Amino acid sequence: MNSTQNGMTALAVASAHEHAECVVELIRAGADVNFQTDTSKISFKDLLTDLANAGTILLTLGPSSMALMSAVKQGHVHCVRELIRAGANVDATNQVGTTAVMISCIAQSIDCLRELIKARASVNYVSCTGVSALKMAAISGQ
Fold this sequence. Notes:
By secondary structure, this protein is mainly alpha-helical.
């Protein structure tokens, strides 16, 4: 259920592409909503693409480390709700210390940010590069 292809689980892929019905079915089937992406299978080209898509704060985003971050990064609020309802860790960090709250600020996913805050996600974490969600929001124009 939690095997990966290209470093992403089926749940992370469904979340990234806003397939909320698939997200629900995968959760019902036992998918681990907190499963960490195997970054050793992510190619350097994919990493650079993700970083380039992050815009001005290139070194703080990196590849999404789980389904929740994938959904937040794409602004898929319905998937975010389902993942939170299923127990996704709203304060989990990826390999560079970035949280879903930070990703929502970078991606300007305001509805996702609201859902994370309702779920009591911390807005006070600082990434490994020393950047907070507030600074990320300011840099990305929010």
